[in-house]
Amino acid sequence: MKKMTILMILMLALFGCSSNNIQDTPQEPTPPSSEKRDDATQDNESHELISVEDMWDVYLSHYEGIEVTEIEFEYKNSRPVYKFEGYFDGKGYEVKYNGFTKEVIEEDIDDSSKPLHTLSKEDLKHVYELITDSEKDVPEGYKVDEWKLEAKSDMIKFNIEYENHEGGEIEFKYNATTKKLIKKSND
Asked: How far apart are CA 185 and CA 187, in angstroms?
């Protein structure tokens, strides 16, 4: 009987503590970290790339009212990274997200002047159109390494860079609105 009572007390203590920790401890949001995590892709085991439209929505949900000025995409250590830059109320907001998990991996907020031009969600359609267009001029063995969509003073500009396993690079620069190729370079 004594052993049974001790066993029940231990079980209540174990389950009671873990239950209290889960239910009674308030969960505070984790502040963005400026350090990259090695386990950043574990949350999305399928390793499906989040679309730029979905990442746009994530960025705007974190900074309501922000005006987006630039979006970049690149692979860092074999992981996709989106970088959004925007402006709101005298501040420039630069945020990098893991392209598999939507996790903030870096955030930088500085004083900034109001941009002359900004991007809209409608401008994102140019990304896919110009990637498809540029792929026609890329030899086999090359893959997209990075791209950038940015609102410049005179146009919305789109740059895309392809790389192959031998270190070869091909870069395209477009006027995203007119889809006109500005420059193509091979390294």
From this structure: 7
More confident position, 148 or 13:
148
Instruction: Determine the Cα–Cα distance for residues 115 and 87; give it in Å rounded to an integer.
Output: 7
Q: Is the pLDDT of residue 14 over 90?
A: no
| Separation of alpha carbons 84 and 107, rounded Å | 10
The Cα angle at residue 104 between residues 117 and 107, in degrees rounded to 5: 55
Question: Which residues face 79 on adjacent strands?
Answer: 76
pLDDT at residue 40 greater than cutoff 50: no
SS (H, E, C) the chain: CHHHHHHHHHHHHHHHHHHHHHHHCCCCCCCCCCCCCCCCCCCCCCCCCCCHHHHHHHHHHHCCCCEEEEEEEEEECCEEEEEEEEEECCEEEEEEEECCCCCEEEEEEEECCCCCCCCCHHHHHHHHHHHHHHHCCCCCCEEEEEEEEEECCCCEEEEEEEEECCCCEEEEEEECCCCEEEEEEEC
Residue pLDDT, tens place only, 47-98: 899 999 999 999 999 998 999 999 999 999 889 999 999 999 999 999 999 9
